[in-house]
Amino acid sequence: MTTQSTSTSQAPASPDGLDSIFRPKSIAVLGVTNTLGTVPHDIFVNILTTRFNGVVYPVAPRKRHIVGVRAYNYVTEIPDPVELAVLVFPGAVCEKALQQCVEKGVRAAVIISAGFREIGPAGLERENRVKAIAREGGMRLIGPNCLGVINTEPEVRLNASFARAMPDAGRIAFLSQSGALCTAVLDYAASKHIGFSKFVSLGNKADVSEVDLLRYLAEDPETSVILMYLESINNGRELMKAAREIAGNRSNPKPILAIKGGRTAAGAAAAQSHTGALAASAEVCDGVFEQSGIIRCQSLEEMFNAAQLLSQRPVPRGSRIAIVTNAGGPGVMATDAAISNGLDLAQFSDETTALLKAALPAAANLKNPVDVIGDAREDRYGAALDAVFKDDAVDQILVILTPQSMTNITTIAQTVCDIKDRYADSDKSLLCSFMGAKDVAPGIEILQRNGVPHYILPEWAADAMWRAAWYRQWLNREVTQIETLPVHRERAAAILDKAPDGYLLESQALEVLEAYGFPVVPSVLTQTADEAVAAADRAGYPVVLRVVSPKIIHKIDVKGVILNLKNADEVRKAYGAMRDNLLQHVKAEDVTGILVRHMIPAGKEIILGVNRDPTFGHMLMFGLGGIFVETFKDVTFRIVPIRASAAGKMIRETRAYALLKGVRGEPPSDIPSIEDALKRLSQLAHDFPRIAELDINPLIVHPQGEGCHVADIRIRLEQP
Amino acid sequence: MTTQSTSTSQAPASPDGLDSIFRPKSIAVLGVTNTLGTVPHDIFVNILTTRFNGVVYPVAPRKRHIVGVRAYNYVTEIPDPVELAVLVFPGAVCEKALQQCVEKGVRAAVIISAGFREIGPAGLERENRVKAIAREGGMRLIGPNCLGVINTEPEVRLNASFARAMPDAGRIAFLSQSGALCTAVLDYAASKHIGFSKFVSLGNKADVSEVDLLRYLAEDPETSVILMYLESINNGRELMKAAREIAGNRSNPKPILAIKGGRTAAGAAAAQSHTGALAASAEVCDGVFEQSGIIRCQSLEEMFNAAQLLSQRPVPRGSRIAIVTNAGGPGVMATDAAISNGLDLAQFSDETTALLKAALPAAANLKNPVDVIGDAREDRYGAALDAVFKDDAVDQILVILTPQSMTNITTIAQTVCDIKDRYADSDKSLLCSFMGAKDVAPGIEILQRNGVPHYILPEWAADAMWRAAWYRQWLNREVTQIETLPVHRERAAAILDKAPDGYLLESQALEVLEAYGFPVVPSVLTQTADEAVAAADRAGYPVVLRVVSPKIIHKIDVKGVILNLKNADEVRKAYGAMRDNLLQHVKAEDVTGILVRHMIPAGKEIILGVNRDPTFGHMLMFGLGGIFVETFKDVTFRIVPIRASAAGKMIRETRAYALLKGVRGEPPSDIPSIEDALKRLSQLAHDFPRIAELDINPLIVHPQGEGCHVADIRIRLEQP
User: Fold this and answer.
1) A713-717 and A691-701: which strand pairing?
2) Which domains does chain B have, with CATH numbers?
3) CB of A371 within 8 Å of any CB in chain B?
């Protein structure tokens, strides 16, 4: 909770000043020692030996020099200006050291040292003091409790981290809330020849957060794609806003990929014991990430596979893929993986088929996946690739090669690169899977040198193509505005602003919904059987009786709902029976009354809901209702307020959509009326921050043109 | 179809004689040339240069010698006995060459040559002729159209393939129906130091099939785990039988892992254009593989990850895992992956927690996942592993290491191996993920040399642990017998044996079900409204009317079903209305009558079904019924006849099970009555091979103790 409240209670930090972290002219490392193999030593040496293009000063009290470089007792002793401070002192010393940095006029700091929030309340206090010093001194701060930062730009070459080697320069920026993951990722990426533009260990995020870094990297010409590993999210709304702007910038889209650690309950528990961070549930995070254009991944492999494709330009234009292979089996496996992921096999034009037929032997398969046959050499691959590149029905192209005895691997690799160059202006993407390892290594090297994304297994390529296609679809989405529907806000406020925290009475909740234009069936709150019969006569039979009582939350448990009463007689009997039964559970004065309403005819049951997420605020939910909610968890989430197009999208992305469209000749349900209800619900939650939970379950949906009706409603209020 | 019918029309081939393929004393390669880089040349040279422990003779008409070895014009010219022939002649020459092999007394052949079934009808004929020659000559045959076979046993060292290098010896056998995949797999496995016992390219499977090889490998002391890539299955029943015996042999279980290429419709189409093989649908194959204990994988990565773990002994004992890590983030990611896969985090005993507390620093996380903290060295890893190995609640242990500056990687690796040795008698498994590449490489090498399965990413380890846990659960399953329930077989036969191909009338289908003891509601076939009213009076209201007509398959489309008729008057009116309406669709003489029955009260709707799969025969299906079948595809399949315990398992493995158990305080449904119906359905299908399709949809299930009722039935007959 602390993370969030601290961040939101102050003005959001601006990304200004981050240049002093990534492109400093001079650095002081505070707390350097002479002991090889320790962080306080290695970080200084790393900056030095990876050939930082600037000056680096060791601050090491009572030392004359560190590995031959003149050392200083205090940062204030350094005779030249210092732009960036890297602190490796023990945590307890950091406050004083940082104060001296302020005196020295240092612009930014990276605190590597541990001993802060992660060790408990005393550490959190220390972290808050350090943060205050930096804020007051106008310094930006990365960490504490982090691994450091890396910038591979040739004009800078900064490795202020305890990573042993500088990674290759590349177009991928990586942010990680787990320092240990950084070391593993650097090593993993090196083995796959994946380069980075910037590499940042976020640590405790006392000042600089993932949002600041996203905004900085958005402007970074070296970065084409941004990867994040997050365990907590400081400010969900800011993250979403930044992501939408950066990933959704149509003139210069920068894809953002993220892993949210702590997906499962057990994972979240592990995350909490690790950083004390809040974990948002997997479904909520999925909804939010999708809404913001963030490509959510579940493993490093998925993330780097997709990043390799997306760090190329342009962003692939769609989901229709062509496969060119010299082996049937891998072609089948790639097709299986692609289709399961939601990609489509492109349907070739007659022209393409004719081109393939002319170029390939009789035994070749001219349909997609194109099988150029095991003895194919570069001519067949070249001709096939040329043909599919020309086909307008193809968005992404996967080349599969297995090393057979006639396969001239390096020549084919070169041909693939030539084709890529020939179609440099195309918006199609080209990926390769040269399967194997040693035999195909020289071919892979050629591909990687020429910027062709390569995957050992075609399944990985399929996974990357799918994520790219998803992103393209999001990028091309229709961006609509937030609609404001005409509602009786004051009527709802009269109830919601007055009611205490806790559940509203059903009669009040219905009035709120009515004020906001929901399809509520008129109901009358009655006190006697006679009143109930009179109300039923007016409502028309069959009717429903529902108890209203502040003491009763679950009506069914106390037989507080009776359905399908067909005449006055039945109403009278049911009324008496319900009252008698209720009085066994609650006192007479606790029964506010019994609602009488016309019974809603059968229809499809869905659920609409709102809950207030600690990270993201009000979330809107749509899903299949009734007893199916818990079994199938067929629900989807969006942040409130939703845009006009989101209501339809929420419905379409559930499996319930198939039911609503009508299966087996059933008439389609009234989907527009559900969309309308979702928009109204979004507006209601947005207008009243005190709504903590709201469930319309079920909303009964009738055939097209006949609308829907609220069958049950529950609203809980709580001061945010 | 050809594949299947050819195999089943003859006696199944026995695995005898396969020793001549894998362990021949002498080999003739028929069709060798002197052209480097071609199959006919390379295969001979591969056998020679990978140091085959026997004699190899080149047969190369009109050549004196091949790479210095004396050549022969015909196999019959060879002065010594020849045990195995490897044919690399063009397809057209193979018949004659094989005939000569028979004359020579050769025991077995591997036909590498293409030009058979895969090129069309002429090729298929040639393949059948070749097969006949082999059968008549008493020879076993691998291929044609394959890459060859490999046996790494030191006493044999046979590389009769066009793979460039001999793989390492290991405990994994690999069978592949895609030759090209073989080359890629060998190269991929080499880079991960994965060794093989046997390696077989199946080709067109004219004689030796996957079943023969499974039975051979079951007896092979070099093989601990069997991997298969299949695109078609020759004889589904035989495959299942063999798999159950081998994977289910409790005294010496050999896990079988398989990828079935052609999972998706598009994948299956690709598979068909490739080998002309039949593809079974993904759901059917999943059910069959699960039933037989085959661990189904979808990618090579999944398969080899699991194989590395399962090639160790013993098979891991369960799904409760412990994680020991020096980094929080990867611990969180591993936990997420494990839980999503269905593994459980072990709950440590107090003793374990005390041991961990004594050995680890204050900042360590003593709960699972155990975080030994970034500066951990071998002592902490050793103590933590020792503690979790002793805990009875732990089944599998994952060690995660990230290379931080204090991490002594190789020493920790050695400690892990020592612990493994110390607990050599334990039935727990130990896996490692040393994350990264270059930095951790020396540590990984130590692990691999000592037989500790290693995975670069902890998510992969989690995937392997999950598959191993699944297999353990299958291995420990209760094995029950097939029950034979008392039924009126003759009564059903009187209808089923007489009826023509096509749909049975509903009245007949109901009689069949009744004969087999299904809960059928008594119904009366009526010809007039008076008869209907009389029947309704006897049945008790409300009643249902249902048309019976050989011309009407979909009753709903012609309003041929009317529900919920509450009295004689309503029945009379409805009867007239239905008749009038029907006569707009069919002639009066085509209406057999109108069924009258008491209306089944509401309940949970499920579907039971039978279909006849071309590969596996009769399959039994269970799932959520009504309009949800198509939307959620929440169904499961088993081969007919099922064993006693299978009915319950089928129900429990669907999500519908949660609904049947009762959600939100609903009473549980009568699950035993569904189990009974499943057993009866299995027996019915087994007794009557002509049943091609059968749907009970819905079966309406009432609360526990109140049984279930067949609400609709459709049976289609067709000669198999």
Assistant:
1) antiparallel
2) 320-475 (3.40.50.261), 489-598 (3.30.1490.20), 604-717 (3.30.470.20)
3) yes
